[in-house]
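Appendix B. One record, verbatim.
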Amino acid sequence: MISQTSKLRDLKAISPWQRLLVLTMATFTIAPFAPLIIQSLAFRWAWPNILPTVWWHEQRERSPFPLAWDYVFSPSSRVGEATLNTLGIGIAVTLLCLLICLPAARVLAQRNFRGKNQLEFLIALPLLLPEAAIGIALLMIFISLGLAGTYAGVIVVHLIPTIPYMVRMLTAVYQGHGTDAEDHARVLGANRRQIFFRVTLPMILPGVIAGCLFTFLVSTNLFLLTFFIGQGQIITLPTLLFAKISGGALDATGAGIALIASIPGIILLIFTDRFIRNYPLAE
């Protein structure tokens, strides 16, 4: 109760101009979901009408459930398979990315060596290249290696655009904490394993969680790389959604799949936000 009262007081303390900016930001954040929710509950909605001409609840005798959700939860939609693939690939990519980037970020943050700036530029290079160019360039290599159309190939190719995000985030976290606490633990006799798990990891854990969140979100929303390397044999929510909207129109089933695809990210975002806010060392 006290916390809610404090938040309301903080909101009233800002100027009308700042409230307008906050409202504008919230509108741009929420607005993309509005047409998806409306479309998923529509029975008939055609251009140029701003709202559906026939809502689902007006046709309940013809369709007991909304058309979008009736199709999404049917076995023929393959949404269940695509969801499991998306989550499994996203988790695998996140864990591998963390395993690779954690020691690399520590070196970049705490060591100075010749070519460090050039190395940081090369790590960020995949973010500057078009995703389609990367996918086409790697496709022939993956075919020759037997990785095209396999889960392993999709996981490996997802590491290319996710590693730069994770490395940059973890490097900033390491730079913010320094090495004083680790040096004190080393002087007191702690070994490397004890220093990492009892000193380093608790300090950088909020940054690690945030980096994992962004890595997971990037991986679960990759379409072109999954499309090229998956060869249509690995179905994820983005590839399934593209098959529905490739005709240039978003129907009710496409809207339902888009909403399903956004649920894991929303859940993880809420969990991560609460964890970081309540973490004892977050300050």
